[in-house]
Amino acid sequence: MSVVAPEPTDERDRRDPGEARAGVFLARLTVAPALLLVCWLAVALPLLMAGVFTPLPAIASFVPVAALVLTFGLRAVRPSGARWGSWWTVGGLLAVTVAFCVMQLLTFSEQIVVRRDPASYFNFATWLAGHGSLPIHPALGPFGGADPALSFGSPAFYQRGGVLWPQFMAGTPMILAPVGRLAGPYAMLATMPVIGALAVLSFGGLTARLVGPRWAPAGALLLALVWPMMMISRSIYSETAALVLMCGGLALAIDAVRANRRLTALLGGLALGLTILVRIDGLRDVLPVVAYAGLLVALRRRTGPALFAGLVVGVGAGVLEGYTLSQPYLHYVRASLVPLLYIGGAVLVVTAVAVVVVRRWGLPRLDRFRLPDLALAAVFAVMAFFAARPSLQTVRRVPHNPDDEANASFIAALQKSLRLPADPYRQYSELSLHWVTWYIGVPAVLLATIGAGLLLRKLLLRRRTDWLLPYAVIAWTTVTTLWRPGITPDHPWASRRLIVVVLPGLLLFTLWMMAWAVRSVRRLGYGPQIAGGTAVAGVLLVLVPTVLTSAGMMFTPTEQGEVAQARSMCRSIGPRATVLIIERVTADRFTQLVRGTCGVPSGRIRVRPGSNTAASEDVERISEKVVAAGRRPVLLGANSVDVAPYGTARRVYHVSTRRDSSSLVAAPHGTWSLAINVWMAVPVYAG
């Protein structure tokens, strides 16, 4: 039996025409979001690297490229074999998608003050919207030249050689920047719920292909109600676009192999490869695609070279951007990145050798030594290890750089507020499987484990081979992520590490197990009512614990009012101003926000040892240099006492809102209060 799915037969032409049209529409609709992102990133990256990334040339390039790709790419996408949908399925999936989008639009976050990654992405995108190029040049002229106490970098904006390089990959900022340029910051922030809804739609399409079309609305609903999915759709997270590319890329690859179409395989590989341009962790997630493409090549399937070519181009684009525009960030994550590059090289070598071996001697038999019968036990053993890991290990990490020290300080403060034992170097990674149960519940994890075991058995027997690539990606990424999440471990923040592959993948296994149970009920001779009741009971078994975790947060908007207050602050700063931030926390949060949103030069003055504020002699000296340069010095601090010694203090920024809570050893519930203030003074001797 073939290890890959066979080509579709002409049986599809004898089926109900309405059902066929619904199936084709469903298949094409659910890969269209990934194809649109592929087209946009393909035209945006060259423009950014050329320093001319502005809306007019970007849109002018995007429209014809998207027209060609959608015309020919979607034409090649057709459901195969007996897998069909209905217009009820399409309507149900669209209803879930639209409802999710509306709910997220009503509660999206205005997180633009740099405390964590979403605001960093916002300010990155805002700079691209206004300038269309990197790096960021903090002009020295408005400050009267360089000064040893003056600097321009801040968290997520690294100062290197007189210029600033934003943290993170440029994919998500490139998606948002034109929206910000054409429609402003509110539209930029509101784009994330739309992308999140497209991710839910794409996951529904992947569910239809792997579990069955009738399960697509249920799959979309389960993912939509998982709190990490809501969280990444309310603020600017790279995982949102990555999820669209991952689900769409896997769906395209499945369609390509089923129909033996090279163009679809090329586009699927490109979508999967471009996840690296959005988030560097995608380099780990796509390693199984290399092995799968090699398998197709070994079996002389023409989709193999196309899939591999698309993957190489996408990964190459991400690596090129990383090493030219995000190098300080890659340097920061080198402890994880370098081993991953070695692993990637090893996978390439092993795949190349395996291609030669398989072509000469054929595929090895995997049904010997009762290997298929051991599959379920093996999967349970892996999950049992992760479940028992907290009693076997306590994961710690000794800081190696200032960012690690800051994380350790944050964990220590959080442990104190949560009344936990002081252990600032602890990473809590041993609780990673428990994190999963917080968000989708213990029943889902158990069903997923059984489903994964049964699917592995079928794969070893060379059945259900359409699952081979998704299974490899889900299993590899889930195990490696659970072993080393590599993220500050407070929740729900850390749940973003689970949302691209781990949680959707386990939900796919769960849904497949439910479908298997329904088919078993039918095989036992029970009627459609019993089978339908089994399906409803299975969905509710997962839905209830999911909603119980999400309910405390899903209806509460967070980080509200920040955009309006930022605009008010910009008006207060006024024209021909040079902003000097003289307090540490304010400088961390607002240096790039003032520079990008207000459009005025901003810098930070070095704080005194053991203090959060700058020395008065440094403030006065640099302020006088600003005056000599013909500009107005404006001082910012967190409190009136920070700036009052230099002029009349007035509060120019005030937000009292809610933020996501932070939990270390239990599921997050509810939100916490957040207050942010900025005080301003204009030095009296500046006139």
UniProtKB/TrEMBL annotation:
Question: At the top level of its lineage, which domain of life is listed?
Answer: Bacteria
Q: Which residues cross the membrane?
A: 25-49, 56-74, 86-106, 183-203, 215-233, 240-257, 303-320, 340-362, 374-392, 436-456, 468-486, 498-518, 530-555
Which UniProt keywords are given for this protein, alphabetically ordered?
Membrane, Transmembrane, Transmembrane helix
Keyword Transmembrane helix in record: yes
Signal peptide bounds: none
Please state what the protein is called.
Glycosyltransferase RgtA/B/C/D-like domain-containing protein
Source species of the chain = Actinoallomurus iriomotensis
